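TICKET: design request
STATUS: open
ATTACHED STRUCTURE:
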């Protein structure tokens, strides 16, 4: 079986035209050609974040962007709040702890979204917090946290910076960094941006720049001031992943052709199709409808069920070439996750659900074949008929 269908929440499949663009012959990173490429790409990035600020591009994975946010915005010994809704919030807190920040974790049950009222009370308990770290899409649970509301609460209660992990959200979920009052928003190339891993994108507000300029804490490769200085000359302080820049230009062209609004609407449709199918098959969903992410769906937990999600994933991988993700940390072995971000169409969801039904039947799990596919098709058909009839529902 050499046909692989990668439906994990990153890395995601690469469209052929992006793959092709990345084959362009190498150019010098100090050349005029690269400067033009850099300028073109960085001019198109801010709308993805909903900002008028410059977006910096680091050659690194998404975690480096999380680390860059933490080391630049706050200094050791300062107090921060980290809202932990799953494995990625946990990672944000671990980074803060490692750098000697006084880290106050607001722990939320995995599978639930953070509650703005709880955050308000927590801010009142910790009035000295210099920054609040949020995860927009908690990839480990398939929850989309209400970052706009959470940021509003932070602004009402304190002067703390709002720092957001948008890695599995940017490009697939709406983001209005400036009007929501977010100070740092980061993402990585291998999620909704349809690129291979290797680029980390960081958007920084005026307020955050002031904190970064005043911050004496040492940093070198991740010093955002170096990236800002180089960006003023359409350049990168160290050798960037030039081929990924070629790919990024093509990815941004694809998003422009589809339009960002349409891409965001498509991700919502993919979420609705996936969830309707899972419900029709009688399988549990980890997150409620109101908290469900448009980019990844967590199915489970299967505690006490005859269905072993690891056996199901192995069957789908081996017999159908479909790669789904398992659970992380405390959800390991208890759930499976379907990634539907980036280069993913309604057709792909129908194929994933059809394979899933087949795999369940192969494992002897009682399943009404076609029921999930039908539910997903119905969501799709309702969506397109609404679109054809204008705004009428
Ligand atoms: C993928 C992901 C990351 C970054 O992971 P890397 O492996 O370092 O690229 C960070 N946060 C979230 C929410 C993610 O989904």
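STATUS: resolved
RESOLUTION: sequence designed for all positions
ATTACHED SEQUENCE:
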């Amino acid at each position: 079986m050499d046909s692989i269908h990668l439906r994990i929440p990153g890395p995601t499949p690469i469209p052929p035209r992006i793959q092709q663009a990345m084959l362009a012959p190498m150019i010098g990173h100090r050349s005029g050609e690269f400067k033009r490429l850099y300028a073109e790409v960085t001019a198109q990035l801010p709308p993805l974040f909903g900002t008028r600020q410059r977006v910096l591009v680091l050659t690194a994975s998404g975690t480096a962007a999380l680390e860059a946010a933490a080391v630049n915005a706050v200094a050791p010994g300062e107090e921060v709040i980290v809202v932990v809704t799953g494995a990625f919030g946990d990672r944000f807190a671990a980074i803060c702890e490692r750098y000697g920040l006084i880290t106050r974790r607001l722990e939320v049950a995995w599978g639930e979204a953070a509650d703005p009222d709880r955050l308000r009370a927590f801010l009142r308990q910790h009035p000295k917090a210099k920054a609040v770290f949020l995860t927009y899409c908690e990839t480990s649970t398939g929850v989309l946290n209400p970052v706009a509301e959470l940021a509003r609460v932070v602004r009402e209660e304190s002067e703390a910076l709002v720092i957001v992990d948008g890695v599995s959200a940017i490009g697939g979920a709406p983001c209005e960094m400036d009007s929501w009052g977010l100070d740092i928003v980061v993402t990585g190339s291998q999620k909704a941006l349809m690129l291979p891993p290797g680029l980390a994108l960081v958007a920084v507000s005026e307020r955050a720049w002031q904190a970064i300029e005043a911050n004496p804490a040492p940093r070198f490769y991740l010093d955002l001031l170096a990236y800002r200085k180089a960006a003023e000359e359409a350049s990168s302080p160290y050798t960037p992943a030039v081929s990924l820049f070629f790919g990024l230009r093509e990815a941004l062209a694809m998003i422009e052709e589809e339009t960002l609004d349409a891409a965001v609407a498509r991700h919502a449709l993919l979420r609705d199709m996936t969830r309707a199918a899972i419900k029709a098959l009688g399988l549990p969903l980890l997150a409620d409808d109101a908290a469900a992410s448009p980019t990844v769906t967590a199915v489970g937990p299967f505690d006490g069920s005859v269905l072993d999600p690891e056996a199901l994933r192995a069957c789908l991988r081996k017999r159908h070439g479909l790669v789904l993700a398992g659970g992380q940390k405390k959800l390991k072995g208890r759930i499976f996750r379907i990634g539907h971000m980036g280069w993913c169409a309604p057709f792909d969801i129908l194929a994933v659900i059809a394979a899933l039904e087949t795999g369940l039947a192969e494992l002897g799990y009682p399943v009404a074949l076609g029921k999930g596919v039908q539910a997903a098709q119905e969501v799709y058909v309702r969506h397109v008929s609404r679109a054809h009839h204008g705004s009428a529902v």
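CLOSING REMARK: The chain has a mean pLDDT of 97. Residues 10, 61-63, 88, 135, 137, 139, 165, 167-168, 188, 191, 197 surround pyridoxal-5'-phosphate (CB under 6 Å).
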